[in-house]
Amino acid sequence: MNKRQEIKKFDVIVVGCGVAGLSAAVAAAEAGAKVAVLERSTFDERGGNTRYTEATLRMKNEQEVSGDFESLLVENSGYHVQPDFLASTVLDYENWPPLVRASSFTDPELISFFVESVPDVIAWLKQRGIRFGSTGFYGLIPRPSPRIAIAGGGLQLVETLTPFAEKLGVQFFYETTARDLIQSETGTVCGLIASNKFNQPIRFEGGPVILACGGFQGNAEMVVRYIGPKGRYLRPISRGGYYNKGEGIEMGLRAGAAPSGDFAEYHGQPIDPRSSASEPIVMVYPYGVLVNRQGLRFLDEAPGPIDSNYEEAVRTVAEQKKGIAFCILDDKINRIANWRRTVRTDQPPESAPDIRTLGKRLGFDGDAAQRTVDEYNRCCVEGNFNPETMDGLSTVGLTPPKSNYAVPLDTAPYHAYPITSANTFTFGGLKVNTNAQVVTQAGEALVGLYAAGETAGIYYGRYPGATSVLRGAVLGRRAGEHAAALIKG
Ligand SMILES: Cc1cc2nc3c(=O)[nH]c(=O)nc-3n(C[C@H](O)[C@H](O)[C@H](O)COP(=O)(O)OP(=O)(O)OC[C@H]3O[C@@H](n4cnc5c(N)ncnc54)[C@H](O)[C@@H]3O)c2cc1C
Predict the structure, then answer these.
(1) Is 39 in the pocket of ligand 1 (CB under 6 A)?
(2) Which domain, by its residues, includes 385?
(3) Distances from the Cα of 289 to the Cαs of 244, 268, 419, in angstroms?
């Protein structure tokens, strides 16, 4: 061992101080453990994605999750899973074949545990000072399923739980990045090696490690490695995501963890690339058309409620040349009184008397876009336009069709927003059981290692919106409780 290495001793070592890490730290400290929290950022920037989230929660009220919460998790829990693997999940977990326990799908048992734990974790957070309230929405039509939110968003959670944890004796180490796990001769995880901002090593020894350090959205190499070449164009949706560079997932995989969650996917949102604001979303495109740099349409802009469709749409935007598209509107947009509710970018749309000029200014083929809009206009038919419902006003004879809000774009000045796909968080992570223990490729719990929040992979395909903060709280709290019990045991 390097003689100059600093050594610190703790019962439980938590990596990351977003919702998952703070929930873990509080739960472990309340159970009597001496807890360290390692955080790569400065104190002022702490909290990763949690710091920036509005923290909407897919719930009817503080006691009940939304009706589609569980079914969406189940629908997005894996691909083409072998029927006999699924059949064996009706047995008690201990009797599942190890191959099944290590398989890349979200265990039904974990989904049930997650769903059932939500009301209890809300009550637990309330007892620790977190307040909840209602939330608005960015579209013009209500979301298909209800939401509540943390009052003051994730920032309130970070600012409330940090001093709460400190009062319990939790010690925070900022500008300290976890790099490598320490395992005993029997394989138990019993600490980790971190580095300070000068890249000097620090050993944290003594107890279990809880990896709550986000996904890999802030690591350009991992994003391209797993998500593919379009990953070049996916920037984190806010500053916090840049801190999540995937070390937690890599450390776990190196130690033999089974991967879980969709490594090829991410939670995408349409944003204005000209903006430096957090979450500068642009959700107005259903009322116009989307063209790529070649000036061509490539999808149905309004197949259904935007809340259920924007993720698939923006992933398609990421596949266009340079990962960018342009939302073209005409001046009739200003007849929709509250259309600005659909955008959160701090940049105004580019406006011009004609579409060709918009193309020159924003970098798309304006001549081709004009031809695209002419064809679209020819395929619009008479009908009742209503931006506040799915009006069914569809194009006729156009490929791809536009299934709602199809009115001609014919009134100057024209307006356009550039749109790229943000990477809110990545889906690929470590497989965990209902104790938030990391599961190995051999299907056994990796003793001493836990994962919570984005580091624990549970989503495949489409993200069931407004469930990720809850994932962090539920798994983080469970990890903290179990890790504290482990050291006592
Ligand atoms: C703008 C925005 C809006 C969102 N809206 C919603 C929403 O409405 N509802 C919802 O449920 N979800 C939403 N999400 C997603 C949700 O906020 C996050 O997925 C969740 O908060 C992640 O929590 P976490 O604790 O797993 O990770 P994070 O909150 O990202 O925390 C991870 C922490 O680990 C630290 N870290 C990373 N690597 C290391 C390392 N090697 N060593 C030490 N520290 C490290 C990071 O600096 C960070 O502080 C949103 C996210 C964003 C960014």
Answers:
(1) yes
(2) 271-422
(3) 34, 19, 12
Global pTM reads: 0.97
Tokens 């400065």 -> residue: 42
Q: Is the CB of 237 under 6 A from ligand 1?
A: yes
- The verdict on residue 90 lying in a domain is yes
Report the pLDDT averaged over residues 381-403.
Answer: 97
The answer to whether residue 3 scores a pLDDT higher than 60 is: no
Residue 233: HSE in the Cβ half-sphere, 13 Å Cα cutoff: 23
Average pLDDT, the chain: 96
Whether pLDDT at 1 is above 70: no
Q: Which ligand 1 atom is nearest residue 56's CA?
A: 8
Contact 16, 212 (CB under 8 A): yes
Q: Is any atom of ligand 1 closer than 6 Å to the C-beta of 217?
A: no
| Residue 413 in domain | yes
Quickly list H helices, 182-219. none
> What is the distance in A from the centroid of ligand 1 to the CA of 289?
32
Q: Determine the average pLDDT of the residues in 77-94.
A: 96
Residue 162 is assigned to a structural domain of this protein: yes
Give the model's confidence band at 144: pLDDT under 50 very low, under 70 low, under 90 confident, else very high.
confident
> Tens digits of per-residue pLDDT, 429-481?
999 999 999 999 999 999 999 999 999 999 999 999 999 999 999 999 999 99
Residue bearing the CA closest to ligand 1, atom 2: 53
Check whether residue 411 and residue 434 sit in a common domain: no
Q: At what angle do helices 355-362 and 366-378 cross, to 10 degrees?
A: 140
Contact 157 CB / ligand 1 (< 6 Å): no
Cβ(177) to ligand 1 under 6 A? yes
What's the total number of domains in the chain? Answer: 2
**For ligand 1, atom 39: residue with the closest CA:** 213
CA dist 437 and 48 (Å) reads 22
Pairing of strands 209-211, 445-451: parallel
Indicate the top mutation candidate among 213, 275, 344, 450 to test ligand 1's pocket, ranked by most ligand atoms within 8 A of CB: 213
Q: For residue 213, how far is its CA from the centre of ligand 1 (angstroms)? A: 8
By three-state DSSP, how is residue 266 classified?
strand
In terms of DSSP bridges, do strands 35-38 and 12-15 run parallel, antiparallel, or are they unpaired?
parallel
In this structure, what CATH number is given to the domain that contains residue 283? 3.90.700.10
| Atom number of ligand 1 nearest to Cα 468 | 11
**Residue 161, CA distances (Å) to 33, 114, 403 in order:** 17, 21, 46
How many beta carbons lie within 10 A of that of residue 174, not counting itself? 17
Measured distance CA(486)–CA(95) in Å, rounded: 23
Q: Residue 5 pLDDT more than 80? A: no
Q: Answer whether 23 contacts ligand 1 (Cβ < 6 A).
A: no
pLDDT level of residue 143 (50, 70, 90 thresholds) = confident
User: Can you give the pLDDT at residue 4?
Assistant: 65
